[in-house]
User: What shape does this take?
Amino acid sequence: MLLEARHEDGSPMSPQELRDELMTALVAGHETTASQLAWAFEHLSRFPCVVERLVNEDDDEYLTATIYEILRLRPVLPNAEPRLSKRPVNIGGFEYPPGVLLLASAFLVQHDPDIYPDPYAFRPERFLGSSPGTYTWIPFGGGRRRCLGASFALQEMKIVIRAAVRRFALQAAGDRPEQTGRRSITFSPAGGASVILQERSPRAHSDARELAGVA
Ligand code: HEM
Assistant: This one.
């Protein structure tokens, strides 16, 4: 599609433009969602009751809440992009002059016990019946400029998690939750999210192989 795309003047995209588009899709789109899914499977493998509820759910309310909770607990980009102040700005009683880089930490906001009681607990129920707050849930950044692929990423995660938990029982490969490690631009499970998959019912080898690669 990119090769066939044309600018308004009819010219094709230059090699540099094509390269930049592909790098954006790869770095901003692939690595983030893949790392977020890795955290999802790392957590789900330790919470069989959550998995069972996901398997038995008819709609996707609990699945959506589970994904919101994963993004709250383990934002793969721990902060939004820094903003450069152009004029004096007052935030929370602090006055910042022009020329200051301001950085909203998703990790800190999303672990504030005043906003999320028992913030280190994995509890999808937090988001049942209530949507994430615009300023209190910012794994995709916030404000007027935020992640371009947020809806796409949420949809992708829903499809992958639903398919995987319906077909496989998940079991943690290690006793302890995995530590966080830096992987390129994202914060990911340091052990690579090792999870043991056990097929719930026998399926054609080719189908299973396709999904086994996911986790
Ligand atoms: C779970 C998955 C993802 C997470 C956690 C995530 C997170 C973020 C964050 C925190 C930003 C910075 C926002 C800001 O401070 O301005 C961002 C920007 C961006 N993301 Fe994502 N992202 C995800 C998936 C995706 C996907 C799937 C795509 C593309 C298909 C994508 C494309 C972009 C682009 C192009 C920007 C730059 C937007 C701009 O500066 O105008 N992201 N993302």
User: Anything to note?
Assistant: Helices lie at 15-44, 48-56, 61-73, 106-109, 150-167, 205-212. The mean pLDDT is 92.
